[in-house]
Specification:
The chain has two helices and four strands; from the N terminus they run E-H-E-H-E-E. The chain is of the alpha+beta class and about 60 residues long. The protein has one domain: Rossmann fold (3-Layer(aba) Sandwich). Strands 1-2 form a two-stranded parallel sheet. A two-stranded antiparallel sheet has the order 3-4. Helix 1 links the parallel strand 1 and strand 2. The longest helix is centred in the middle third of the chain and has 18 residues. It starts with a strand and ends with a strand.
């Protein structure tokens, strides 16, 4: 299990894309689960297989 808090923040676009690709590869090849906290919906959509949306600490959606 990997926990990442805003791993893509403050990265330039090229490094951000590279890190997203590498993270997806590592997670898929290793078979571990990753919990990624982000405020950037694009990052979430590109990296995640399943998303959970929280609002004021309460679960709003999962899918």
């Amino acid at each position: 299990f990997i926990l990442l808090d805003e791993p893509f923040s403050n990265l330039d676009p090229v490094r951000k894309e590279t890190l997203r690709d590498e993270l997806r590869t590592i997670v898929k090849q290793s078979g571990v689960s990753a919990l990624i906290v982000t405020h950037d919906t694009r990052d979430a959509l590109v990296v995640a297989d399943t998303l959970a949306v929280l609002k004021e600490g309460k679960l709003q959606q999962v899918g």
